[in-house]
Amino acid sequence: MKEEENKQYYSDKNGNSPFRGLGGLLRENIKRLVPYSSARDEYQGEASVFLDANENAFGSPLEQSYNRYPDPLQIEVKKSLSAIKGVPIRNIFLGNGSDEAIDILYRSFCNPGVDNVILVPPTYGMYQVSANINDVAIRNVPLTPDFQLNLEGIAEAIDKHTKMIFVCSPNNPTGNSINRADVETLLANFEGLVVVDEAYINFSRQRSFIQELTEYGNLVVLQTLSKAWGLAGLRVGMAFASEEIIEVMNKVKPPYNVNEASQQLALQALANIEQVNAWIKETLIQRDKLVLGLKDFEFVEDIYPSDANFILVKTTDPKGIYNFLVQQGIIVRDRSKVELCAGCLRVTVGTPAENEILLNTLQDYK
Fold first, then answer.
1. Is 8 helix (H, G, I), strand (E, B) or coil?
2. Which residue among 187, 206, 242, 273 has the highest number of C-beta atoms inside a 10 angstrom radius?
3. Residue 203 DSSP code
4. Is residue 43 part of a domain?
5. For residue range 10-32, what is the model confidence (pLDDT) as tens digits?
6. How far is residue 135 from each of residues 29, 103, 154, measured CA to CA in Å?
7. Residue 235 and residue 99 share a domain
8. What DSSP state is assigned to residue 234?
9. Residues 185 and 192 sit within 8 Å (Cβ to Cβ)
10. What is the CATH number of the domain that holds 166?
């Protein structure tokens, strides 16, 4: 769309934000949706006898019983997160990984076959997968060669059916943080939702956008317990947004989307923030050492700056190096076919021993 024709969707003549609340964004069927009312929604107090949810009253064939349905709103976990993040419970959504939050945003705000979203490749692949599942058109505006937003290209791609813009920062697979001022430009000048995915924010020098929730009503911030918190196997993702957006997401989600075991283990983990902070510090130290070690190899052409727990390495022979490492039992990620990532391997920062094994093994690569 030509830029002069597009300005009505990007900002008004006075430069004020065109975002006017969720009324024009929300799907009509979601506005009318009456959510499923579970037994634990209807009664949330304490009792000695629960005969309301058709559960197995005898327990579970496990050491710990999981015969009762979990809290559908995960209030205790949200209390712990609220204290850590400085965000009220009413502004927190918990899902079965961040992927569930992404899917719910599509299902809540994008009309299949009508609306579109803007993605900025190279970026996290689930934005595209969820769009395809929900029959939502994708408008790709690639990052610049230095992996930053192309604001002019985004402005030209927006039309009246553009509902969301996804920005991953620190970005996956490039590892860099997106310029904060550029994200703020989107938030201030786009009438739809700006979804900032901060899965790797714990490793970044940038501060989280959750501090801006009160300033931008169209901001959704995604985070996860999978990375720095080491709970990838539990599948606990977070979304932070206005109370209005969180209410919509809670209405659309399945009633018991985060299981009891994940809630209990997440609570235990959230009580050990000192351990997590120590791991983050060690990860950053090991990341720097890994970068220095990889620079010595002739087949390494470039190592891009990273604010994450991985590095993107440009090589002369990505497929050959990948296959060589596989033969030695070492698995990295071949990203050489991803847009703007030709020749690149993505290498996660491991333990000191794992990083040493990688570097020593690469010395034998011919």
1. helix
2. 187
3. G
4. no
5. 444 344 667 878 888 999 999 99
6. 16, 12, 21
7. yes
8. G
9. no
10. 3.40.640.10
> Which residues neighbour 190 within 8 Å (Cβ) at sequence distance 6 or greater?
9, 10, 18, 19, 158, 162, 165, 218
* Sheet containing 300-303, strands listed edge to edge, beginning at the edge strand earlier in sequence: 300-303, 310-315, 344-348, 333-334
Asked if residue 242 and residue 306 are part of one domain, the reply reads no
pLDDT tens digits for range 116-151: 999 999 999 999 999 999 999 999 999 999 999 999
pLDDT value of residue 10: 43
Residues 264 and 281 in one domain: no
Q: For residue 4, which phi and psi values (nearest 5 degrees)?
A: -65, -30
The dihedral formed by the CA atoms of 238, 233, 312 and 324, expressed in degrees to the nearest 10: -170
Output the six-digit token pair for 360. Answer: 């020593």
pLDDT of residue 2: 39
If asked whether residues 286 and 220 sit together in one domain, one would say no
Reading the block at residue 94, the tokens are 């918990």
**Tokens at residue 345, please?**
């391997």
Q: How many residues does the chain have?
A: 366
pTM to 2 decimal places: 0.93
Indicate whether 98 belongs to any domain: yes
User: Which of 270, 292, 320 is at the close of a domain?
Assistant: 270
How are strands ordered across the β-sheet holding 236-240?
A: 92-96, 236-240, 219-224, 193-197, 162-168, 116-119, 137-140
Helix (H, G, I), strand (E, B) or coil at 186: helix
Same-domain status, 302 and 316: yes
Query: Mean pLDDT in runs of 10 for the chain (366 residues)?
Result: 41 58 91 89 81 89 94 97 97 98 98 98 98 98 98 97 98 98 97 98 96 95 98 98 97 97 98 97 98 97 98 98 98 97 98 98 94
pLDDT of residue 60: 94
Q: Where would I find the H helices in the chain?
A: 3-10, 28-32, 39-42, 75-85, 98-109, 126-133, 151-157, 180-189, 243-252, 260-270, 273-294, 318-327, 352-362
335 is in which domain, residue-wise? 274-362
